[in-house]
Design brief:
Number of helices of chain B: 8
Radius of gyration of chain A: 27 Å
Shape of chain B: globular
Structural class of chain B: mainly alpha
Distance between the termini of chain B: 54 Å
Largest interface: A-B, 45 and 62 residues
Strand content of chain B: under 5%
Distance between the termini of chain A: 25 Å
Low-confidence stretches of chain A: none
Number of domains of chain A: 2
Shape of chain A: elongated
Mean pLDDT of chain B: 82
CATH class of the largest domain in chain B: Mainly Alpha
Strand content of chain A: under 5%
Order of helices and strands of chain B: HHHHHHHH
CATH architecture of the largest domain in chain B: Orthogonal Bundle
Low-confidence stretches of chain B: 1-5, 85-89
Helix content of chain B: over 70%
Largest sheet of chain A: none
Largest sheet of chain B: none
Structural class of chain A: mainly alpha
CATH topology of the largest domain in chain B: Rna Polymerase Sigma Factor, Chain: A
Oligomer: heterodimer
Helix content of chain A: over 70%
Number of helices of chain A: 5
């Protein structure tokens, strides 16, 4: 590299460093405020889910077993998703870029596999419920009361599992895209 | 309130570095602000982890580049975006073409954005005054690889800037 080249590049470096943020007002207070807002949203979601669980259990104890358990199950699911959505949010990548990218790839692969395993578990649950229904309604001879008591529970179980399958399908799509973009980045970075 | 004071000091002393690294990962000015905010939040969270066995600027550059990369990955994986395909030609005007009417700094930013991401990382850190060994530390590469990439990056940057000046 010639001296002329070096001088030329020094000029470029000088020019580069003239690019200063237009937002000079971001302070410690602003960052704390933004974090507190995130914490409050999470706290609100958790409180609503916990209230739902409590209410569901109350209904179940007071005699509306089916409705009570349904409310509890939905509230637990909401709480689970709320926690899952924030997994790893508090860890800041401070390691070398290449190391952190490998770590992100491992996590993305794990999430993708986890979502697929969820689909298989749900499929197994559908088969299990179908087996129970077959056993009770086809092989057995339920009374009208038994039939009425069981059918709503089975329908609820199937709807609930179907909901999970749809949610997991969305997660799989996201995980696949995330994995693909991370793999492309890893390839680009060499 | 030692941490609070330290964060303010960091923003004051190294705000430019964090801003420019953020800008190197996003072209859209509004989104640059958003990414910058994310980087600052990450710095605020990570500062208590900082040990003085490395330079603060190296530590900050790592955080900013890591956040920038996860931002790029997130943007590329969102359903409204196209996935990263470095070899695919765009029918949109190139950043350089868009920047022809702009000033020298805009041209430089556009030329930097034009570089492949691995060269862009090396060039932005060099323009910030990091030595190849420090860049290797930030990126997790060996110094030799960094030097090779830097030579290529400088050549490409000069070529793009020259081509633009001749237009």
């Amino acid at each position: 590299m010639t001296e002329n080249d070096t001088n030329n590049f020094d000029d470029i470096a000088q020019l580069w460093q003239t690019n200063e943020t237009s937002d000079e007002t971001i302070t410690d207070k602003d960052v704390k405020l933004s974090l507190w807002a995130q914490y409050w949203v999470f706290a609100l979601e958790t409180m609503i889910s916990l209230a739902g669980i409590g209410f569901g259990l109350y209904l179940a104890i007071k005699g509306s077993l089916f409705v009570g358990l349904s409310v509890t199950a939905f509230s637990l699911t909401a709480l689970g998703f709320s926690l899952w959505a924030r997994l790893g949010e508090h860890s800041v990548a401070t390691g070398a870029v290449k190391t952190e990218l490998v770590r992100a790839l491992t996590i993305a692969e794990r999430r993708y596999r986890w979502a697929w395993s969820g689909i298989f578990v749900c499929a197994a649950a559908v088969l299990f419920v179908a087996g129970l229904m077959f056993n009770q309604f086809v092989l057995g001879t339920p009374t009208l009361e038994e039939y009425e008591a069981s059918i709503s529970l089975y329908v609820f179980a199937l709807v609930y599992v179907s909901g999970f399958i749809i949610a997991l399908g969305i997660l799989i799509d996201r995980a696949r895209r995330s994995l693909a973009s991370l793999q492309t980045l890893a390839k680009e970075l060499g | 309130m030692k941490e609070a004071v330290k964060f303010e000091e960091v923003v004051q002393e190294h705000g430019g570095l964090l801003w420019r690294i953020s800008c190197s990962y996003e072209r859209n000015p509004d989104l640059q602000q958003e990414l910058h905010q994310e980087v600052l939040t990450a710095v605020w969270r990570a500062l208590p982890k900082f040990r003085s066995d490395s330079k603060l600027s190296t530590f900050l550059a790592r955080i900013a580049h890591n956040r920038g990369l996860s931002y790029v990955a997130k943007e590329a994986s969102s359903p409204t975006s196209v996935e990263i395909d470095p070899g695919f030609p765009s029918d949109q005007p190139s950043p350089l073409e868009e920047a022809v009417a702009g000033n020298r700094l805009t041209l430089l930013m556009a030329a930097v954005h034009q570089l492949p991401i691995n060269l862009r990382q090396v060039i932005t850190l060099t323009l910030e005054g990091f030595a190849p060994r420090e860049i290797a530390d930030v990126l997790g590469e060996n110094a030799n690889t960094v030097s090779i990439r830097l030579t290529r990056a400088k050549q490409m940057l000069r070529h793009d800037l020259k081509a633009l000046a001749n237009d």
